[in-house]
Structures
1.
Amino acid sequence: MDITSLMTEWSKDSIIDENNLSGESIRMANLHSKYLNILTDYRLKSKTLEIKYNKEKIFKIEYLSGNYNNPEDAKMLEDRGLEPVREKIRSAKIQDHLDADKDLLDILMKKTVCDEIVTYCDQVLKELSNRKYSISSTIKWNIFMAGG
């Protein structure tokens, strides 16, 4: 799921049927479950990507430092589409290379998307919590106005 489809889905789910407030009150539990499941799923994906990023970053530091120039490393580098480093990168320049590394940027972008989905779902859940009280108050008000 991407953020745009999530936003579209919430736009549909957020509509309240004012003529069926009791039904809407019951529907809140289903919506809460739905968005909590999405939040939990993407929170776990984000953590997995964070771990993957950290491992890849350490590999890249070792690679840029020239630690994979042995003949036994050739197959592993080939599998990753890399060649042995001809010149070791100075420690001061390694961070610049990491900041521009395509593999690390791809992981970071995926993690950013997951984090945005988590933030969005968190806001949806807060809205659902507030809505529950609003619907309950409206139902009570309608009962009061009807003489009950």
2.
Amino acid sequence: MRQPSVAGLARRARANPAYQRTAELADGIVDSGPWAPDIDLVAEQLAAGTRSAREVADWRVGRLHQLRLAYQEARAGRGQWPAELAELRTGLESDGVHVWRGLVGPDELAAMQAEMDAFVARIEADHLVATRYQSREGLWPEDAAVVSNDAFAWSPELVAMAGGPPLLEIAEGYLGPGPVVQRAQAMRYQPHQPSDRHQFRWHHDLEGRRLKAMVLLTDVGSGDQPMTYVAGSHRRRHSIHRYHDNRLRLGYAERYTRHVEPRLLTGVAGDVIFFDSNGLHRGTRRPTGAVRDVLVIEYAAPGSPLMGGRPVPDAVHGLSDDGQAAFATMLATEPVWERTVDRGGWLDQLIDVESWAVPVQTSSSTTSTP
């Protein structure tokens, strides 16, 4: 895979006003080298509150990248898991993926399916075409898809699911205390020729450790258009290079995963697929596959980049205190599709350590597994 040059990265940095230390961006690429032995210790100290973010603020970008990845893991180690979620916990930690069969009940599923149909009908009637990946919603003609990055705006059922048990408990267990709801997507894929565009090629999501919950609204068999995931690949700490170019191949996983096992994530309507988007994954397209409808909830640690959104207000107000807290950052964030300057991505944030090294606070709602 071709790597971006240091000179090219420096030019890109100078063109982006979000970067405040452009020269050190290039230095960070050169400096990203072997994993520094003190990184994990410093990350634990940040998570424990025995070291402040200001003490590492002058580190080069390459080391800050390593530190942030380690810090995510240190936060996750303080997560609390209810005992009844032990099987799901094991699946996520070992493989990076777990399918909860039949999690969505018949009534809730019917409501979500109706909401999805209404959304697609509106977009198709208006012939609204998305102009970029970060668009709020629209048709993706080249991919035969209809997509929303703001599904909370029209699905109160999804808001209630994202801000309540068991999903919020799972997010806290996997990401550590105080997880935030990052985004809600809706996707309808019509049958389509095989593709390696965008999410249909092997990639990771440029976010480090992050949890997604994919709700199947239609049955998805092995001959349809399921997502494929490389089990165990979520444990990889991707280099800073891979945050400039996240296009990957299976050979990349073979370097660090003993048994490369791409899994077709199939299921029936009402199943929920939980996965860490740091692992290698891709969508699958087939001209003879059935239409696939999914809703996707994204959770991240506090301080992570957010796309923003406009969730149904009454649905948020009906959540518990912990549920409302999980949505608070989204409600306070200007949606990316309304911004004149895109800011706040992983690389943009690295030099602002205080923005992502958020003090760990323990939730009052969950109990730890013995």
3.
Amino acid sequence: MSIKPQVLDLISLVESGQMLEAITKYYGENTAMQENVSPPTVGFAENYAREAAFYGSLKALKFNLVSVVVEGDRAAINWVFDYTTADGKQYRMDEIAIQTWRDGRLSTSATSTIRHRWLSLPNVAGDWRRVAGGRRLATLGRAIGSMRNPSGCVSL
């Protein structure tokens, strides 16, 4: 049985700003979430608390779906999300979440995330460049397609 309806509903909830509702609805009691090389966070309560603390620390957050693939009980979701921290710093994260679902709930999710900090600079000829330490940054976003920042910002 495909979990595509649940995955699409989770995406809809997240894109509409209802991240904690998505967690409540779709995370299993023993969900294990692992980000990059960090140790996994295991358990519904632990994951909910971690995510609530992160979302609660932000001034603004916007998730955008780039792509999704669902096959059987596994899904791969590519998100790009922009957020602003309480101190006004802006970030863009490009994340791929590889998920395994059991009985209609998320069982495991491993994510790989690339984070950029945006610094507002004058828009030169309507273009922007991702730069880090004087070098152009090769990112997953560039690999899957051009990412344009309409505010004319540069990633550092």
4.
Amino acid sequence: MLISVINLAQPKIADAEMQKAIRAINIQIAEDFAPYWQFGARLRLEGPVGGKPDAKRLEEIRDLCRHGRGRRKEMIRASDDARLPEANKLIDSLKTEQARGSFEIAVYYEKKGRWQGAKIYYNDVLQKGPESKYAEAARTRIDEINKRTRP
């Protein structure tokens, strides 16, 4: 996972100082967290795009950061970039593909009788694609596993 950092503290914090901090954080992530995570992560400093930043766009970015990813579609609707609807479709299709992958792994675990592993991946389906065609089947399978494993 690549995490972009935008230096909104200029000129108080120079980009060179920010880059040093990012390098230190990336080293800490690699040494302390990556061995325990199932994915890698790195920070990168995003450079300025043009002249003076647009105050309205900066407020939108701050709002998105404060309220999380759940507001992505609202933020996209607020923008006038013509590429965003296509990007939104691609993001939704990727989420469905991730849900499908998790569903297949859950089915594998279920066939092997590894109920907890299956439940983990069925729940992953619900997180990655709550509105996908795999979500209802995942809910049903979780209920059946719960009935099967209750004492």
